[in-house]
Each structure stands twice: as C-alpha cells, then as structure tokens.
C-alpha cells in the first residue's frame, strides 16, 4: 500500500462510517427491508467502502505520457577488456591517449599502454613506492620514458600528489616535509615569507626529481573560509588551505610554482572553482557552490586568476557544481564552466586537468565515469585523471573509443587542446634529469603536524 493510500484510508474511513450510518437511517425510514435482500445498512456500507477503495478519478490521475514522449532507452556500452582496448585501431588509441593520465598497480600493465601510445602520463602514489628504494622506482620510470623516446614522442607526464604534510603520497621513500600552510604559519608577522617558501619548494622539487616526477599536484589555492569545518571528510581543507586572504595565497603559491619550474617540475593549482565553500567530501559526493559569481571573482578566484596565466602552471578542475552556471554537472566536466567561463570568457590558454575521475562524485554521476570523460574533453579539459582501478580505466577508454568512432568528440576542441599540451612536454624535455648521485638524500624528519 502506498503512502497516499494509507493516508486515504486512515483519514477518510471514520467519516465514511458515519456517512454509511446516516444513509442507513434515512433509508430505513423510507422503505421496508425485504427478507431475502441484504440490509440497507450493509448495502450502504458496501457502496461507500467501494468508493473509498476505488482508484482516483481520471480528473485526479496523472495523465500518462504519449508513447512518442517516452525517453529513449540507451543500451549500456559493453565495457571492453584491456586486451580489446589494446587491439583497437592504433591511430584511435594514440589520439585518445594524449588526454589520459592514469594510476596503476602493475608495471607490466602500464608498460603495455605506453607501448600502444594509449596514455599521456602516469600518476604515482603510495602503493607504487611502498617499501621500495628510490633507484628502483626511478629505473621503472626511466624504462617507460625510454619507450616514449624510441617512439619519437614527448616524455610521459609523471604526476604525483606530494603537497607535504598530510598529503605526502611518496613519503617514504621521499623525505617528509610539512605542508606549505604550516610553513607559512611559522613565519613571524613582520618577516618576509618568500625565502621560506622558496627554500621549501626547492627542497620538494629536488626530492620529486629523484624519482622522475615532472608534474606535482600542488599547491592548494582554495581559501580557508571555515577553519573549523570537519564535514569535508578526506578533503581536510582546514589543514591544507594556506590562508583566508586571497593575495596571501596568490603570493605563496606563485613563489612555490616559480621555484618548481626552475627545477623542471610543473605545479598544479587546485581545486577550481574552489573547495573553500564546499561542505561535502568530493571523494564521495559532488559539492555545491551557491555563492554569486561576483563574490567568487572578488575572493575565491583571485589566486586562480593570478596564477593560471603562468606557462608552467596546470589548473585542476574539482568535482563541484557551480550552481549559478550549471546546477547539475560538476565543474570537472561541465561545458558552461570549462568552455563558457574558463576558455571563452577568460580566454584561458593554459592546461586543465580534472581531479581524479575515480572519486565518488564522478562514479556516482548520472553520466557515469565514461560519459563524464567524453563531456570533459568536449568541454575543453586537456587531461583526464583516472587513478584508482583498471575497471575505471577500461570504462573510460571504452566510452572514449566509442565516442571517437561515432564522431562524438569535437575535433576543433581537441586540436586546440593538443596545441596547449605542446608546452608541457617541451618544458620537461628542456629540463634534463639531474643524475641521482648529484642529489644528496634529504633527512627524514617526523612532522608533528595533524593529519
């Protein structure tokens, strides 16, 4: 029984009993009761019960949609196996692979993708380095880069999430550092913070180069709007955000990125359009920003606008709905945000990478992880990050291959993206790797910082 039926019977039944009694009383005064027929009371009661249990009248019923208006049912794509993906037309794999940065567990798996030119880069994290020595990790990455060189292709993007502090995915074996926010907070009020930030960034870049990383997913430039917020789960912005002041964030992040660039490592400012106002954990759910655009432009977006124009800066797109522009789709694959705001209104020519598409905000989206990847590329994102599992990567690649074969990936948008991406490998190639023996290992120092 539905909730409506329950309400209908609960509230109308007493009244119907009274009405039945009234009908019986009136009828008994006007006509005799035949011995072989049901009593008038029984007849009246039956009549009213039938009325109570009857379906709503046509007037109150929702009109069924005509058959022509019924939504078209799409047959879900059969997810290709890794073998089927690798057997795809090599030209298609290479065209799509230029936009994918992937995490991995098996070196053999990622090697097969590199040999087929099916990816642009790899994301290395804790499970890739756990209980391993730096020379072994570096040898593994160098072997992949050697394949790229033999193919006449630019170096692979080797990305990491090494912010320092709580987000230190490569520690150990890389040396532990505090977060940049802690470095800033330790500077005395009248002291110039730039030397401390530059020294910190140089030390971090030196460590990253020991294993061949050329793109770091740092710094965080989201504003620290609510330092006490704990509802954001794994995001933990209260520990990672640098400041509530936009210019303080711009300055510190700018010094950090410039220093990394001097060492041949690109930085990534994150997470546009900002997580400072987002209460939910985007690892699980898409967040929402309801603030007016004019307010965001004067505060949250100041660090992004100050730094996005630098040639060595990549911008990461968050799984956050910017409600004034797109009430349904997270910014990481929203055309109004990426194409409308960033590419068209701001005329931004720099590189855009999505936050990890393995996060719940995307895997639970109505488009699914594959549909979201197609939308992201068509909107103007350059790189899609898929870090978690082979299943997710297969789903993304299946959707992209299908869209490519159907002509559903915008050629003009992709051509513009390829032009933008030329800057990234060229800069990496111009910064030769420093021999390991010339980089002294940094001491591992335990941090008292909260997780």
Task: Provide an overview of this structure.
This protein is of the alpha/beta class and 451 residues long. The chain has two domains: 3-52, no CATH class; 82-438, Glycoside hydrolase, family 3, N-terminal domain (TIM Barrel, Alpha-Beta Barrel). Helices cover 45% and strands 10% of the residues. It is built from 19 helices and twelve strands. A five-stranded parallel sheet has the order 6-3-2-1-12. The protein has a three-stranded parallel sheet with strand order 7-9-11. A two-stranded antiparallel ribbon has the order 4-5. Helix 5 (107-115) runs parallel beside helix 7 and helix 14 (335-345) runs parallel beside helix 16 (368-379). The longest helix is centred in the N-terminal third of the chain and has 28 residues, at 3-30. The radius of gyration is 30 Å and the shape is globular. The two termini are 50 Å apart. The model is unreliable at 1-41, 48-62 and 427-451 (pLDDT under 50).
């Amino acid at each position: 029984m539905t909730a409506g039926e329950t309400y209908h019977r609960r509230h109308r039944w007493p009244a119907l009993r009274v009405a039945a009694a009234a009908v019986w009383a009136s009828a008994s005064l006007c006509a005799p009761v035949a011995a072989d027929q049901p009593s008038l009371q029984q007849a009246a009661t039956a009549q009213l019960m039938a009325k109570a249990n009857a379906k709503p009248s046509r007037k109150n019923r929702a009109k069924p949609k005509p058959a022509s208006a019924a939504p078209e049912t799409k047959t879900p794509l059969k997810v290709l196996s890794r073998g089927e993906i690798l057997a795809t037309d090599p030209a298609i794999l290479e065209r799509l692979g230029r936009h994918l940065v992937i995490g991995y567990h098996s070196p053999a798996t990622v090697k097969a993708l590199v040999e087929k030119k099916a990816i642009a880069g790899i994301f290395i994290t804790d499970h890739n380095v756990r209980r391993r020595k730096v020379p072994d990790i570096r040898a593994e990455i160098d072997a992949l880069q050697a394949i790229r060189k033999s193919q006449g292709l630019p170096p692979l993007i080797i990305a990491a999430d090494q912010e320092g502090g709580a987000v230190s995915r490569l520690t150990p074996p890389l040396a532990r550092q505090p977060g940049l926010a802690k470095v800033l907070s330790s500077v005395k009020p009248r002291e110039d913070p730039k030397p401390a930030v530059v020294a910190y960034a140089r030390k971090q870049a030196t460590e990253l180069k020991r294993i061949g990383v050329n793109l770091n997913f740092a710094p965080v430039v989201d504003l620290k709007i609510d330092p006490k917020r704990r509802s954001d789960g794994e995001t933990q912005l209260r520990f990672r955000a640098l400041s509530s002041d936009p210019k303080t964030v711009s300055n510190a992040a700018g010094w950090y990125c410039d220093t990394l660039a001097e060492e041949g490592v690109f930085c990534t400012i994150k997470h546009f359009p900002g997580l400072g106002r987002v209460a939910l954990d985007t690892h699980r759910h898409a967040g929402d920003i309801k603030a007016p655009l004019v307010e965001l432009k004067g505060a949250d977006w100041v660090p992004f606008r100050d730094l996005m124009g630098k040639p060595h800066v990549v911008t990461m797109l968050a799984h956050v709905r910017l409600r004034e522009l797109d009430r349904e789709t997270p910014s990481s694959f929203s055309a109004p945000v990426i194409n409308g705001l960033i590419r068209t209104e701001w005329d931004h020519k720099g590189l855009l990478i999505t936050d990890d598409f393995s996060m719940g905000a995307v895997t639970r989206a109505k488009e699914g992880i594959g549909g979201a990847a197609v939308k992201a590329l068509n909107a103007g994102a350059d790189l899609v990050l898929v870090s978690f599992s082979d299943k997710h990567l297969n789903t993304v690649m299946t959707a992209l291959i299908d869209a490519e074969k159907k002509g559903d990936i915008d050629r003009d948008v992709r051509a513009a993206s390829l032009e933008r991406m030329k800057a990234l490998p060229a800069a990496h190639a111009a910064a030769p790797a420093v021999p390991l023996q010339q980089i002294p290992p940094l001491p591992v120092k335990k941090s008292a910082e909260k997780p």
